[in-house]
Each structure stands twice: as structure tokens, then as C-alpha cells.
Design brief:
The protein is mainly α and 279 residues long. Helices cover 58% and strands 0% of the residues.
């Protein structure tokens, strides 16, 4: 006797969505899947588009979590921030894994559509710039690439007006009674954080007696985790670009590999790294 085919409706699964919100409705799948518009006939352009679109989605979540973490630390709700920061590191892990997919595109594959990109470049990603500003790598010169978009400039200026994540953590430490220099606690900076010996010694004390300073120790390790993943992301970026285009200039006019290698030298939370030498 032939067994009837499985019908999920027999178990109560909803199958009529003529007047209900479906999975596709909730996630607006049609809009997401309809957002890929290759400008060439090259097969690998679809990979290139989806790689960057999915990265932008992950970055949107990253900004959401970084904002929540800063708000929580600013309100002394550090336990809530820990969850957010752990999630940001996992997001960075996803972004790192995505390079493995893009590296399946060979140099000859990319040349079939590279000219069609014009001057568009990941260097112009607003969300990436907001992430860098939120993490403390601030540089007003980077706003120039967005000068054609008033809303983008306003978003970047609004970010510069806030304390970055690291300054938020240092302010929390100051409220907890630690003596830190006013120049690292005062007004939000619009330039990268420079290592300060007093801050290095502060972190050395925290790590020397983790039991007495457990909350700050955990915060410090969360920041190191985040920067560790961020450094890996930059390294994967530069190696992928070199593998695909060699030392050609970037489509957006940067030096390509030479520009990306400079970014490898950036330290987001310098004292947390320098402290390890003096501990």
C-alpha cells in the first residue's frame, strides 16, 4: 500500500496567506532578492554584488549593536553591553568568512566586469565609515567621499559628536573611581585615539588584579576580541584584493593594496595592546 505524501497542513501548518502576513511579507524578500542589478553580462558580477550587499546588512546590525553597547555602558549597564559586544565579534566573524566566498573569483573573472563599476568602491561605504568612527578611527577627511549626500554627511557628523566606544568605556572607568586624564574623557574627538601612558598603566592595573577589577577586565577583553576580528577583516580584505587585482589602483581612486596595508597599522584601542608589554 502506497503511503500518502506528507502534507504539513494535516499537522496544522498554515498554507493560506491571502489575508495573513507570510514569511516573505515579513522579511520583504521580494525587495531583497530584487535588489541585484548587474551592469554587465559577466557571470561573476552576481557574486560581487551579493557579497557586498550581505556585508552591508551585517554592518547595519553591527551599528545597531555598537549603539546599544555604548548606550548600556553610558548608563552603567555593563552586563547588557557585554552581550552586544560579543554579538559584534560574531558579526565580524561572518564578515571574515565572506572573503572566502569572494576569493573564488579569479583575476580573469573580475576583469570581465571591473570597468563597468566606474568609480564605485567599498571605500565609499557609509556604514563602514560609521563603524570606524564609532570604534574611534575618526578622520574628517573621510567625509569628503560622501559630500554629494547631505544625509550621509549629517550621519557622519552626528557620529563624530558622540563619544566613541573606547571613550565610553574609559568614562565608565572614571565613574568607577579610576584616575584617568581629562583629555581622553572630555569632548568627543574627531581624530584617532592616540596612546596615552596613563591609560596604559590603568589597563595594566586592571589586568594585574582581575579579581578586583573584573568588570573592566571583561570589558577590556571584549574590546580586544572585537579589534582582533576587525584586524583579521582588514587582513583578509587586503589579501583578497591583492589576489584578485594585484597592485592596480582601486576603482574609487585609492592605491588599492597600498591603501589597505596602511589600514592594517591602525590601532583602535592602543593601550589595551601596549599594556601587554608592560604587564
Amino acid at each position: 500500500m502506497t503511503k500518502p505524501p506528507y502534507d504539513p497542513a494535516r499537522e496544522g501548518a498554515e498554507t493560506d496567506f491571502s489575508s495573513r502576513m507570510s514569511y516573505g511579507d515579513y522579511l520583504r524578500i521580494d525587495q531583497i532578492l530584487g535588489a541585484q542589478h548587474p551592469v554587465s553580462d559577466a557571470p561573476d558580477e552576481m557574486l560581487f554584488i551579493i557579497q557586498h550587499q550581505t556585508s552591508e546588512l551585517w554592518m547595519k546590525l553591527m551599528l545597531h549593536e555598537l549603539g546599544a553597547a555604548r548606550d548600556a555602558i553610558g548608563a552603567d549597564h555593563v552586563a547588557e553591553a557585554m552581550k552586544c559586544l560579543a554579538r559584534v565579534s560574531r558579526i565580524m566573524e561572518q564578515l571574515n568568512n565572506a572573503w572566502d566566498v569572494l576569493r573564488t573569483m579569479t583575476p580573469s573573472d573580475y576583469t570581465t566586469f571591473r570597468e563597468s563599476l566606474g568609480q564605485s568602491s567599498g571605500f565609499q561605504s557609509l556604514q563602514y565609515r560609521l563603524i570606524e568612527f564609532a570604534l574611534g578611527n575618526r578622520n574628517r577627511a573621510m567625509i569628503k567621499a560622501h559630500s554629494h549626500d547631505a544625509q550621509a554627511v549629517a550621519a557622519l557628523e552626528a557620529e563624530l559628536a558622540k563619544p566613541d566606544l573606547y571613550q565610553t568605556v574609559l568614562r565608565f572607568a572614571a565613574r568607577a573611581g579610576h584616575d584617568l586624564p581629562q583629555e581622553v574623557l572630555a569632548a568627543p574627538s574627531d581624530s584617532p585615539h592616540a596612546a596615552h601612558e596613563v591609560v596604559t598603566q590603568f589597563w595594566a592595573r586592571v589586568y594585574h588584579d582581575t579579581t578586583a577589577h573584573w568588570t573592566l577586565y571583561e570589558l577590556g577583553e571584549k574590546l580586544v576580541d572585537l579589534e582582533d576580528y576587525f584586524r583579521r577583516w582588514r587582513f583578509n580584505h587586503v589579501t583578497t584584493v591583492e589576489r584578485v587585482i594585484g597592485f592596480k589602483r582601486g576603482t574609487g581612486g585609492t592605491g588599492g593594496v597600498s591603501y589597505l596595508r596602511k589600514m592594517l597599522e591602525v590601532e583602535l584601542f592602543p593601550e589595551l595592546w601596549h599594556m601587554r608589554t608592560v604587564l
